[in-house]
Design brief:
Elements: E1 5-10, H1 14-24, E2 28-33, H2 36-46, E3 50-54, E4 80-85, H3 87-96, E5 103-106, H4 111-119, H5 129-137, E6 145-149, E7 152-156, H6 158-164, H7 183-195, E8 200-208, E9 214-222, E10 231-237, H8 254-263, H9 273-283, H10 288-295, H11 299-312, H12 318-327
Parallel strand pairs: 1-2, 1-3, 3-4, 4-5
Antiparallel strand pairs: 6-7, 6-10, 8-9, 9-10
Helix pairs in contact: 1-4, 7-8, 10-11
Length: about 325
């Protein structure tokens, strides 16, 4: 069964809305709103395929002064914008918003004709436009980025290849880089995101890089277009900083965020008492000789413990091991 398209009706006439919904509800999931200001905020979250304005509900042309906002982001430019009203009003709007409104419908036509116009699937717009633009920037971006079709990796940029030391991507799955026992849960989560109505997910997780080493990261999933079936991107930030993402645009997929966040929490081992003591002193800035004097063990033994800590956390350096241990609550953070 195909997913329903999204229709946003902006009207104060509830009887008119009900009649229209009855005609189009088989093909559209319908949302209605009386306030144009509120409708814009709904559009940012819903990213509808079609926006229908009932001009007859709004007596002043000034009510439509913010109409251009409904084509203000690259996702909303893909919405098919229809305005319905009296011929004289439509003529005025045509002069003012010619480049914004996609179709004008006269109130001289009946509800069935209006519905038939809405039910058409306008193919005149190039729905792959933003996908093509993004792919043109793919390899010059410094963050590792993956183009996905559910769990299947379609393409990775150069930054991803360098970080994960990947040469060939044929046959690679995202779950190849996820440290989680129940990989079926990840696959299900990605499938639901690809086919669902939500446009993004932002969360934290642990990822396996080369030689089974584990690194924590902030990740974001984003659809390039609602019309590219099952395709979306994943951006990776190993610095762990918060993304500058506009939360007002597109809705979040909580299931994906929860799934990947749980992935970073599946750490079963704990350090020995001696390893915890050494990590605690390292956090305070102690050198090997100072740790040796404090714990009354040889510097050689200290170095062996350091090496074991690095290996057990799949880290590159002792600093990375300490950060990993603190992030996963495996040691108590030292108090001054």
């Amino acid at each position: 069964m195909m997913e329903k398209r999204q229709l946003l009706i902006v009207s104060k006439n509830q009887e008119f809305i009900d009649q229209l919904v009855e005609q189009v509800s088989v093909n559209f999931e319908v949302t209605s709103e009386k306030s144009i200001h509120v409708a814009y905020n709904i559009a940012l979250n819903l990213l509808p395929d079609t926006i229908f304005f009932d001009k007859n509900s709004y007596k002043k042309n000034s009510d439509f002064r913010n109409l251009k906002n409904f084509k203000s982001t690259h996702f909303l430019t893909k919405s098919f914008l229809i305005v319905y009203g009296k011929d004289e009003d439509l003529s005025i709007l045509n002069k003012r918003y010619k480049s914004i409104i996609d179709e004008y419908l006269s109130d001289s036509i009946g509800i069935e004709q209006i519905a038939s116009k809405i039910l058409r699937d306008p193919k005149s717009k190039n729905f792959n436009y933003w996908h093509d633009c993004f792919m043109g920037l793919f390899n010059i971006m410094t963050q590792p980025i993956v183009l996905l079709q559910q769990n299947n990796i379609l393409a990775v940029n150069d930054a991803f290849k360098r970080t994960f030391r990947v040469v060939q991507t044929d046959g690679l799955k995202l779950t190849d880089f996820v440290n989680i026992e129940n990989k079926a849960k990840v696959k299900t989560s990605l499938r639901n995101f690809a086919r669902g109505k939500h446009m993004k997910a932002v969360t934290s997780t642990s990822l396996l890089i080369h030689n089974d080493k584990l690194r924590n990261a902030k990740v974001s999933f984003s659809k390039l277009s609602r019309n590219i079936m099952d395709q979306f991107i994943m951006m990776i930030d190993f610095s762990g900083e918060d993304y500058a993402i506009d939360d007002s645009i597109g809705s979040h997929a909580d299931q994906v965020e929860k799934c990947f966040k749980e992935n970073s929490e599946k750490v079963e081992f704990s350090f020995t008492k001696r390893e915890k003591e050494i990590i605690s002193l390292l956090c305070k800035g102690y050198k090997t000789k100072e740790i040796s004097d404090a714990l009354f063990i040889s510097p050689k033994t200290i170095e062996k413990h350091r090496s074991n800590i690095i290996k057990r956390t799949n880290s590159e350096t002792i600093l990375e091991s300490i950060i990993y241990a603190i992030n996963h609550n495996l040691v108590d953070f030292p108090k001054s």
